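**User:** Hello, beginner here. Are you able to go through the protein record under this note? It all follows right here:
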Amino acid sequence: MIPNPFGPHEEPRFTAYLMKTWLAGETARVQTPRYIRDNIPVSLLAKAYAAFVGASLAPGAVRHLNPSGYPESQGTFAERVRREAAARLRLPCGLELGTQTEFPEPPVRINIDLLEADQLGWNEGQAWDELVADYASSFGGGD
């Protein structure tokens, strides 16, 4: 299960909404801040899958990979994205969290395999630099 990959070349979803809203100078609103989801940068996900596929496998062995990125509430994740975007774009990146009282979807949807980003050659700061630059370019704003 890969609940929420985000970053360059993603299917535009939650993170794209946040960035598009902020680049338009508006305040983003999170209607479901209490859902716990596992948002994972696509660049980390790609490295994890490449390492998984490239690893030698003993005959008859069975393997699986359920990579985890940022398993946290959508409100906390939105604040993470806001903080990273604001630092790079030098924009206020306003954020409002709604009061969530209904849960028509499962409240928690996360993966279980913690990734060793350093061993995979993934740099979190560089990933955020690339992510913010890509969204800024895609939505016509930013540097």
